[in-house]
Amino acid sequence: MSSADSERLDSLEGWVAVKTNIFDESETYKIGFIVEWNVIESKFAVTCHNRTLQRQRRKQDPATRESETSWAGLFSVSDLQNVHRQFSGIADVLLSCFPDLSDFDEGNIWDLIFFSRSGSQSQEEEKDLESPCRQLEKYFSAAIDVCGRKIVLDTLFSQDEQDVEEYFENLQEFKRKSMEDEVIRAKERVRSILRSHRTAGGLMQLLKIYEEEDEVYKDLVAVATQYYQYLLQPFRDMRELAMLYKMEIQKSLQFEELGPKRVAALEREVEEWCRRGQEAVCSIQDITVCYFTDTATSLAVMLKQMEEDRKRFGAASWAVAMPRLEKLKFMLAKETLQHMRAKEMCLNRKKEGIREKMCDESRGVFEVDSLELQFYEAQLELYDCKLEILKNEELLLMAQIHTVQRQIKELKEEVVYYDTCEDPAELQGVQADSSPAHSRLRHRLLLLESKRAASSSNRATLRNKREKCVAAWELQQRVSQERAAQHVQHHAVHLKREKRKEEEEKRKEWVELERQKTLSRLRSFREKKSGQYLLKRPCSKPTAYGSCQNDSSQPMSIIMLAPPMDGVSQSSALNTKERGKVPMPRDVPVMLPLGAGAMSDHTFTPVPSAPPPPPPLPPPPCEAPPLPLSESEPATFPAKNTLKQCAGSMDEVLASLQRGQVRLRKVTPNAPGISTQTSSIRDNLLSAIRQGVTLKKVPPPPGPSPCCETDLQQSIKAAMLRMKRVSNESDDEEHSDIQSGDWDS
Q1: What pTM value is reported for the model?
Q2: Separation CA 712–CA 704 (nearest Å)
């Protein structure tokens, strides 16, 4: 047979993998069938309803409902017989359950054309259509119970290609599952042989079991190696592909002249391939750890069982099985050493990931504390891993030391025959000279002893560092617990403070709104009532004067210093009283008339420091003019301009109240008799020099100051320093560890 034919026989092209659990049903469903005879089609109409799904569908949302809960189809007698053959092939119990359908003949074209023939109608009336339909319903229900819901529904109702693909498995997944099943079966064989140790009657029978156990373990190692190599292959390909693309892109960047956009795109592509390669390496490390975990666990179980068997026999008889025991210890130490080295790489990767997460400033203080605790835990695992590595290295060294010592002992106990000599001194010289093999073994023994001493020293150093790491971990745990308790304790106070702030903000908003409303009302009132003013005394009453005393006929600038009195005595008394007293602006009330015949008492106090305005216009002639304030000087009072100034100042005060503060302006009065035009330039310069220059306060630039750090940044830096203090020594000693190369693979 040619090689092409053999490759063709081993090829899986055209084959499909069928799932082993395609008909497994995790849930039970209540299925109902309705069967009726269709006279037109001369076939049985079969309808199937999934009652369980229909009840669940009513409770679900319309968007999440399943598509199909009912099925229907037309089946002839021959179709139902074919279905019965399939069901009976699965379960023989259904052979006697199928009803007799010989009375139902298939219709022909003439029966369809001449359906109204009396013969056909009489035959249809004579047929018993009810009992066969009920028997078919019972038959389908029994088939559901015996064969299963999925087989019955898929047989009765046709499926499309997409549904048929559900029966097949992916070839790659099928191969992986088959290899995994082989590994599981090999482990089970090892466990079954280990259980058979108790049934061994003697040492010779036990030695045969040991030989069988070694063979089964070799099969386990071979199957596990094949399985994990299959799992590693995609990640190895990805690692090689990433390295290849990375080298090609770097060559393009180095030797080709490219534009800035193309260079940036290639650099991003290099980063992406580096990330994929790193992910592939991480996956390879994880799979390697899984492999050595399986092998080391199996060897540990085998060694434990052999130690138990050792107690059943004496030392002399057990000497026969002693080489295998030493071999198991050596193999276990080697596999555990490889396992710990692979685990060490994973732990270092985990530490680097925690460091990268901690450098992110978007995290909170509690997350930083949690990451620091995770780092301490990873560091403790790394210390345990390193101690285990040193322990297994020491076991391997001890095994090699025992081997060398046994070889030296054998050389010493070896009988050497010399030729006869006459001088005894010559014999002593021959005995003093050591053989080259003995010198080589002594040198190897010294080297192994030095490696063992270095390993013991490293173990002691690692124990001390681990104790320091445990102390730092416990301290950080206490700090985190205290911080969490403090946060919980002050959380209620913080909530109350926030609630109080919200209430204060709402109250300020309400006050601001009311202030705006008040300002708008005052402003509208001033605009409506501007220009109509009337002065009166607090105790005066309005009096009618006649036709000439009309408010509408008076100008807006008229100021009444006193109300008119009836009689000459009152007016003379008023003149006599007012002569002795000069009226002050504060003594003059202001009355704002609202209209003819109506007044409102709004009193304004004018500013005393305001300069007097020019005298008002003379009033029009009338029968009873108002009396002057004094005889010596005319009545001059700030009337309209003063009121306008008062109104303007109140607007400013209200506006300043709205802003929350009152701003006062400093007035520098000019010296009397000196004009600004006549002042010299030198005097102005001298006065400016005396006053000095007012410096403006420069606001600080927005953004955080480069010199100050936030609490989060300080906590991150402190945590990084503590983590570095715990782990820097262990990281430095990775390169200084003395490792024997005799057991490296």
Answers
A1: 0.56
A2: 14
Q: 224: which 2 tokens?
A: 């596990």
Q: How many secondary structure helices (H) and strands (E) does the chain include?
A: 20, 7
Tokens representing 596? 């003819």
Contact between 368 and 714 (Cβ < 8 Å): no
With beta carbons less than 8 A apart as the criterion, state whether 87 and 61 touch: no
Question: Does 543 have pLDDT greater than 50?
Answer: no
Q: Which of 36, 37, 34 is nearest to 107 (CA)?
A: 37
227, 183 Cβ separation under 8 angstroms: yes
Q: Which runs of consecutive H residues, i.e. helices, occur in 256-321?
A: 260-310, 315-318
Locate 485 and state its tokens. Answer: 């308790």
Assign 251 a pLDDT band (cuts: 50, 70, 90): very high
Q: Tell me the β-bridge partners of 43.
A: 38
For residue range 321-352, what is the model confidence (pLDDT) as tens digits? 888 988 898 899 999 999 999 999 889 888 88
**SS percent in the chain: helix, strand, coil, step 5:** 65, 5, 30
Q: How far apart are CA 207 and CA 200, in angstroms?
A: 9
Q: Which residue type is seen at 304?
A: K
Please answer whether residues 438 and 408 qualify as being in contact, where contact means their C-beta atoms are separated by less than 8 angstroms.
Answer: yes
Architecture of domain 17-169: 2-Layer Sandwich (3.30)
Write out the two tokens for 163. Answer: 């549904």
> 3-state DSSP call for residue 266?
helix
> Tokens in use for 179?
């290899």
DSSP string over 685-736:
HHHHHHH--PPPPPPPPSS--SS---HHHHHHHHHHHHHHHHHHHHHHTTTT
| 241 vs 252: CA distance, rounded Å | 17
Q: Residue type at 556?
A: M
What pLDDT, in 10s, does the model give residues 463-480? Answer: 898 888 888 888 888 887
Domain boundaries, the chain: 17-169, 179-417+434-459, 530-540+585-615+639-652
> Looking at residue 534, what DSSP letter applies?
B
Measure the CA–CA gap between 531 and 645, rounded to whole angstroms: 13
φ, ψ for residue 75, nearest 5 deg: -130, 130
Q: Which residues sit opposite 595 in a β-bridge?
A: 598
Q: Could you give the count of Cα atoms lying within 13 Å of 371 in the half-sphere of its Cβ?
A: 26
Residue labelled with tokens 């003063």: 642
Quick one: DSSP state of residue 700?
P
The two three-digit tokens of residue 669, written as one number:
């009065």
DSSP state of 742: S
- The H or E element spanning position 70 is strand 70-75
| Residue 605 in this model has a pLDDT that exceeds 50 | no
**Max CA separation in the chain (angstroms):** 182
Instruction: Report d(CA 68, CA 50) in Å as an integer.
Output: 9
Please, which residues have CB within 8 angstroms of residue 231's CB and are 6 or more apart in sequence?
176, 287
pLDDT greater at residue 270 or residue 711: 270
- Give 636-686 pLDDT, tens digit per residue: 444 444 434 444 444 554 454 455 444 445 545 554 444 444 457 777 777
Dump the DSSP string for 16-46: -EEPTTTT--SS---EEEEEEEETTTTEEEE
Say if CB 730 and CB 462 are below 8 A apart. Answer: yes
Task: Please determine, for residue 598, whether its predicted confidence score (pLDDT) is greater than 60.
Answer: no
Alpha-carbon span 217 to 404, nearest angstrom = 29
Residue 426 near residue 389 (C-beta atoms within 8 A): no
Asked if residue 321 lies in contact with residue 730, where contact means CB atoms within 8 angstroms, the answer is no
Q: What tokens were used for 361?
A: 């400033």
Q: Residue 75: enclosing H or E segment and its boundaries? A: strand 70-75
**Residue 650 carries which side chain, given as an amino acid letter?**
M
Whole-angstrom Cα distance, residue 326 to residue 308?
15
- The answer to whether residue 608 scores a pLDDT higher than 50 is no
Neighbouring residues of 625: CB distance < 8 A, sequence distance ≥ 6: 619
